[in-house]
Structures are given as structure tokens and as C-alpha cells.
From TrEMBL:
The active site is at residues 11, 13. Mg(2+) binds at residues 11, 13, 210, 222, 224. Involved in the synthesis of the GDP-mannose and dolichol-phosphate-mannose required for a number of critical mannosyl transfer reactions. This is Phosphomannomutase. Keywords: Cytoplasm, Isomerase, Magnesium, Metal-binding. The lineage of its organism: Eukaryota, Metazoa, Ecdysozoa, Arthropoda, Hexapoda. InterPro entries: HAD-like_sf, HAD-SF_hydro_IIB, HAD_sf, PMM, PMM_cap. The keyword Isomerase applies. NCBIfam families: HAD-SF-IIB. One of its GO terms (cellular component) is cytosol. Transmembrane segments: none annotated. Alpha-D-mannose 1-phosphate binds at residues 20, 124, 135, 142, 180, 182. It comes from Popillia japonica. One of its GO terms (molecular function) is metal ion binding. The keyword Nuclease does not apply.
Length: 248
């Protein structure tokens, strides 16, 4: 397999790092020293670039990896250089944005959880991120909410209510990570990043992600005909599959 022809494209949370944790030094070394000589490397995450850089242990990730796609590719770097940005503000009217944000706050105000903290709505370049517990919660709170959500479907129930209320706006809802869900215009899921790769001439693009089920934020790209999808359960699983793929 030639580096010029193959791209390994990774989700971040749960795929090459533990949820919201910094990448393990051994995993980083494995990707850079073992896999990069065999394949180009890319990242695609729903988070903004600063959060991805934090998890990847530094903003020099744009030089360690060939492609870094933040916010599903609305903000991106190719070979260390930033490309043109897209923004949800250019796509939706201010009236629609405020109507949506206000209704989210209304839903959140009715919600009773074991814990609530701060930063419930985060406005990003290409999406709105909604967290019922609040993004300023501790890692212990994150873990607890994830278990609570699996039992009570807090995020999915809120998504169902938003879908009923906003049938007039073409929005997609995607659950990712432990505590939040993303909302963005239709087609602005992780497949958005693939348009930045069309001119690169890859024979194969291998995508690795953990949230590949319907409603998960890896679902669309995992099932896209332009990629070969690999479902993983954690960074160790990703490493195992890479070894099998490259016969290491």
C-alpha cells in the first residue's frame, strides 16, 4: 500500500483517544512512526479545532497528520495549511437560529437530571452543540451522564422533540461523545470533509469510527460509498484493525 494512494481517516473520541481524553503517547507514536509511512493520515471530528488539538496533544497536529477536519470539515487543514471556512451563520437566517436556540433553552429548562452544570449550548462554525448536563461538567459527571442517558434516552428524546418543532428547517441531529448532540444543516455531517479530498487521488479511504449506528455522528461517513468503513470500540481496537489492514 502506498502512502500516496491510501488515506486512513480517524474519528477522535472513542477511536484514537478515550472520550475527551488526550491521546495516549503510545497510540500517537504508533500512528506517526508505524502507520504514516504506509498511509496518509487524517482526522475528522465534530469538535472545534482547539478541542481536537487539545486531545491530540498540541496544535502541531496539523503537521503530524496530513489532514485535520474540525467541525466535520467546515474548518480544515491540508498539509499544515488552513482552507476556506464555512459557517452555519451563512446558511441559516438569524431568525431561525434564535428561534432554534430559544427552543433548546426551553427544553433544557424543563429537564430534570441528577446533575446540571454550565455551557448547555455551544455555537460553532458549522453546528450547534447541545449538552443537557452542560459541557463544564467533570469527567466523573460525564461518565455518570453517559450511563444515565443509556437508560433514559435523554439526548434522543430531546432530538425527537426538536425534530417535531422544526420541520421547516432542514437540520440533521447527531449524537456523539458522552454528553451532547450536534445540530447542523443537512449534508454537513462528517461526509462534508470528503469534498476536500476529491482532488487528492486516493485509491482507498479507510474511515475508523465508534459511533457508526444510525443517529451516531460517524454513521453517514461510515456508510458512504467513497470510504471503506471500520467500526471500532476503543483505541486498542483501532490499533488492532490497523495491524490487520497493513499486515503488521
Amino acid at each position: 500500500m502506498s502512502k500516496k494512494k491510501i488515506l486512513c481517516l480517524f474519528d477522535v473520541d472513542g477511536t484514537i483517544t478515550r472520550a475527551r481524553q488526550v491521546i495516549d503517547p503510545e497510540m500517537n507514536e504508533f500512528l506517526i512512526s508505524v502507520i504514516k509511512p504506509l498511509s496518509a493520515l487524517g482526522l475528522v471530528g465534530g469538535s472545534d479545532f482547539n478541542k481536537i488539538a487539545e486531545q491530540m496533544n498540541g496544535s502541531d497536529i496539523i503537521h503530524r497528520f496530513d489532514f485535520v477536519f474540525a467541525e466535520n470539515g467546515l474548518v480544515y487543514y491540508k498539509y499544515g495549511k488552513e482552507g476556506p471556512r464555512q459557517s452555519i451563520e451563512k446558511h441559516l437566517t438569524e431568525d431561525d437560529l434564535q428561534r432554534f436556540i430559544n427552543y433548546c433553552l426551553h427544553c433544557l429548562s424543563k429537564l430534570r437530571l441528577p446533575k446540571k452544570r454550565g455551557t448547555f449550548i455551544e455555537f460553532r462554525s458549522g453546528m450547534i452543540n447541545v449538552s443537557p448536563i452542560g459541557r463544564s461538567c467533570s469527567q466523573e459527571d460525564r461518565d455518570a451522564f453517559e450511563l444515565y442517558d443509556k437508560m433514559h434516552n435523554v439526548r434522543q428524546s430531546m432530538i425527537d422533540e426538536l425534530k417535531k418543532e422544526f420541520t421547516d428547517i432542514d437540520l440533521t441531529y447527531s449524537i456523539g461523545g458522552q454528553i451532547s448532540f450536534d445540530v447542523y444543516p443537512h449534508g454537513w455531517d462528517k461526509t462534508y470533509c470528503l469534498r476536500h479530498l476529491e482532488s487528492e487521488g486516493f485509491d482507498e479511504i479507510h474511515f475508523f469510527g465508534d459511533k457508526t449506528e444510525k443517529g451516531g455522528n460517524d454513521h453517514e461517513i461510515f456508510n458512504d460509498s467513497r470510504v471503506i468503513g471500520h467500526k471500532v470500540t476503543n483505541p486498542d481496537d483501532t490499533r488492532r484493525i490497523l495491524k490487520e489492514l497493513f499486515k503488521l
